[in-house]
Write a structure and sequence with these properties.
alpha+beta; Gyrase A, domain 2; 5-stranded antiparallel sheet; two-stranded antiparallel ribbon; 7 strands; binds flavin-adenine dinucleotide
Length: about 300
């Protein structure tokens, strides 16, 4: 990048050009690949300079400017870059993905075409257990011995539903109706076009550890394989200021202030005041999501949780 950004200059990303069309595998039969894109880190700087004017001393360097914009949520310059991906993804994962409304989408039509003959399979050692702390999440794995039965039954189910689907198609049933009993693990394909600002929002939500593993795998691939090549300066800033940063509530700040002053007892008292350490009749701590989340933040900073 240079200090001079002509208002009409057009930018491309050689590192992204190199991987245009290359499918990055995700899950057992999915992929993500870049079809097309517009702009790069310089386009963000170019757009911002329209607002700030060239030569503003405070934001004179491109990298600093991008980092400043991201830190301060001055997001519109990031909307100047956009990307079009071709993705192959199981329908249950796609159902979460499609909730991100700020993208433009065209999906493979199973009214028009025969449903893709691929269903996501689960290996015996890949069945996850239900999390006790997060009602939406998973924790640990079912033993591979038990998992073997689930995988076997999964295979039977996939075969049965596909056979019934084929039977209907061969019997002349309309594709739009024949598909109704296909499982959610059936793969679909789509073009997904989104600007960089909204893509970063998607990545923030879907790369997080509380996102479901399957969509997380896609988000991590998009982030590490694609965004890092496309807009390396923005990617670095995103990791520094968004992905690997923490936000603290007033309550958490009050406890942290006690801890920073070396007063763990006072910190514990605060947590008691907030009702985070209430116990049942047998003396067992109630499960409090807010407390768990704070404990996780302390652990990532290697800070001893005073009440544990
Ligand atoms: C871990 C996790 C668990 C989830 N669990 C559930 C669940 O149990 N049930 C469920 O239904 N969903 C669930 N979701 C989906 C979630 O509620 C959002 O719908 C999804 O993450 C899309 O986020 P978004 O709306 O911010 O993104 P986008 O739709 O991409 O929107 C980006 C931003 O644009 C703005 N925006 C977009 N559309 C509007 C609008 N119409 N009005 C105002 N502002 C708008 C908002 O600022 C929004 O943040 C979950 C998501 C995650 C990450």
């Amino acid at each position: 990048m240079t200090d001079q950004h002509d208002y009409f200059e057009r930018f491309n990303s050689p590192a992204l050009d190199e991987i245009l069309g290359r499918p990055f595998p995700v899950l057992d039969d999915g992929f993500v690949r870049v079809v097309d894109y517009m702009g790069n880190d310089s386009s963000i700087v170019q757009a911002a300079r329209v607002s700030y004017g060239k030569g503003t001393k405070k934001v004179s360097r491109d990298r600093e400017l991008i980092r400043y914009l991201l830190r301060h949520q001055h997001t519109s310059p990031f909307e100047m870059c956009s990307i079009k991906l071709h993705i192959r993804v199981p329908m249950d994962c796609w159902r979460q993905w499609i909730r991100h409304r700020t993208a433009s989408v065209n999906e493979y039509s199973t009214r028009y075409s025969i449903a893709i003959n691929a269903a996501q399979k689960t290996a015996p050692d890949a069945w996850r257990g239900q999390s006790e702390t997060n009602h939406q999440g998973s924790a640990g794995f079912i033993s591979p011995e038990e998992g073997r039965l689930f995988s076997l039954r999964e295979e039977e189910l996939h075969k049965l539903t596909r056979d019934i689907y084929n039977e209907r198609i061969e019997g002349g049933v309309a594709r739009e109706q024949a598909r109704k009993d296909l499982p959610l693990c059936t793969y679909t394909e789509a073009y997904w076009k989104i600007d960089l600002h909204n893509l970063l929002h998607f990545l923030k939500l879907r790369m997080e550890t509380n996102a479901q593993k399957e969509i997380r795998d896609y988000a991590i691939t998009i982030g590490h394989e694609i965004v890092s090549r496309w807009v390396p300066v923005t990617w670095e800033a995103f990791n520094d200021y968004i992905m690997n940063s923490q936000r603290f509530s007033r309550l958490e700040m009050e406890i942290l202030q006690c801890l920073l002053k070396g007063l763990p007892d006072a910190a514990q008292k605060k947590a008691e005041e907030f009702g985070w350490l209430d116990r049942d009749k047998t003396g067992v701590l109630f499960k409090r999501q807010e407390r768990f989340e704070f404990e996780e933040k302390l652990k990532t900073m290697d800070v001893q949780v005073p009440w544990l």
